[in-house]
Design a protein that fits this description.
The chain is α/β, with parallel strands linked by helices and 295 residues long. It has a single domain, classed as Glycerol-3-phosphate (1)-acyltransferase, CATH 3.40.1130. 43% of the residues lie in helices and 15% in strands. The chain contains ten helices and seven strands. Strand 6 and strand 7 form a beta hairpin. It is globular, with a radius of gyration of 19 Å. The termini are far apart.
């Protein structure tokens, strides 16, 4: 009998290829079941309740670190290099960390880098996640998604008001927030995808920088459960991107997003030694992406 997980991955890669050709960059290729709506009384964004602050979050963070440690020991997650840590450490306020998204759990790698930085002992890293990741996952993964300093989005307007208030509070007290501005997760996809403006809007509104992370990969000689090579991670951290006080928020959002994309593009091209190209019709790409491809 064949490896059904391998066959599923093959189909998933075909779907990624199809979505790129169709320019559907912000759509997830994984088919998730409908997610229950996250109601306002179901989330304690700032972990102010006693059970959240003293029990659930500490336990989840311990389990998350243990999970990553075991994954690294078993060579399920392999971090080969960290480049540009000084760029993260140069930030004197809170900040928005942006990263490409190609694996459900690569946030653990970003968390490890953050903890190894000078900010790790003084501040916390929070991660914005999908509503379904918070409301749909059972078991240990569900517990981690709910309690590892996550900031779930919601389709409920009142819940999102609490979300925005939490973002303001956390950045105001010097914390860091991880956002995946591509919106979608494509398994093992190496190219940077076009970026949504949410991360840059938060950075402008709360006067904090964008710290662009980009993770490149190489195949290891170790196979996973689906008989695919486990990827080695090379984590690159670009220089912080600050808003220009002389520009409007709209201009800053556009400029910061464009600069973030250019940083990712350069890392991609330098690491893989190939120009960044897409298989879709160029009309499917935002103007700033089309302009960057000419450089």
């Amino acid at each position: 009998m064949g490896n059904s997980k391998h066959e599923e991955r093959v189909e998933l890669l075909k779907k990624v290829e199809q979505y790129e050709k169709e320019g559907r960059f912000d759509e997830d290729t994984n088919v998730d079941p409908p997610a229950p709506t996250l109601e306002p009384d179901e989330i304690d964004y700032l972990r102010e309740k006693m059970t959240s602050k003293w029990v659930k979050t500490p336990v989840a963070m311990f389990l998350g670190k243990l999970y990553f440690k075991n994954s690294a020991k078993e060579k399920q997650v392999i971090i080969k290099e960290i480049n540009g840590l000084e760029n993260l450490e140069s930030v004197e306020t809170g900040g928005i960390i942006t990263s490409n998204h190609f694996n459900p759990f690569e946030a653990f790698a970003v968390e490890k880098v953050f903890l190894e930085s000078s900010h790790g002992k003084k501040h916390k890293l929070y991660a914005v996640i999908r509503e379904g990741n918070y409301t749909n996952f059972p078991g240990i993964y569900g517990f981690l998604f709910k309690n590892c300093n996550t900031l779930p989005l919601s389709s409920n307007h009142q819940t999102m008001k609490k979300f925005y208030d939490a973002i303001k509070t956390l950045l105001g007290r010097g914390e860091f927030i991880l956002i995946y501005p591509e919106q979608s997760m494509w398994w093992n996809y190496r190219k940077p995808k076009p970026l949504k403006d949410g991360a840059y809007r938060f950075a402008c509104r709360h006067n904090v920088p964008i710290i662009p992370f980009f993770i490149t990969t190489k195949e290891s000689d170790i196979l996973d459960e689906a008989d695919f090579p486990i990827m080695e991670y090379y984590i690159h951290i670009g220089k912080p991107i600050y808003k220009d006080e002389n520009l409007t928020d709209k201009e800053n959002i556009n400029n910061m997003r464009k600069e973030n994309f250019l940083v990712w593009k350069k890392i991609y091209e330098d690491f893989y030694n190939i120009p960044l190209e897409y298989t879709c019709d160029k009309s499917k790409l935002p103007d700033y992406v089309k302009e960057s491809l000419k450089k």
